[in-house]
Amino acid sequence: MTDKIKASPEWEAEAVVKRLHKTTSSGNPSSVQVFLKDDVSANDLADKAKEIVRDASVSLNLPEDAIKLGKVYRSAKSFSVSTDVPTVFEAIAKRGDVKTILESAQPDILPQPRNVKDVP
Description:
Blueprint (H helix, E strand, L loop, with lengths): L12 H11 L6 E7 L8 H15 L7 E7 L4 E6 L3 H7 L4 E6 L17
Antiparallel strand pairs: 1-3, 1-4, 2-3
Helix pairs in contact: 1-3
């Protein structure tokens, strides 16, 4: 199978950013996982994450503490970011070295039990 598997449109960066704009507001922060492209070295990941967060903060004229950089995951080439400014996610998603972003909070993907009866 030589064709690449295409991700669901709901997981594309534009769709994620659109959902984040609806759920993020002042006092109601959202958290995302930012995945970087494969050409970013795992050794440079922490510095690259700081650079991306700093650049987003400067480009949007935000105070330093408006965007919080969370854990950096070298094996996944990703890092977490949280903020209550929705435009931050769009600024990060548009970067050339960012592969995609996903919300940290995901709905339950496990199957739900069926035909469950109450115990008397």
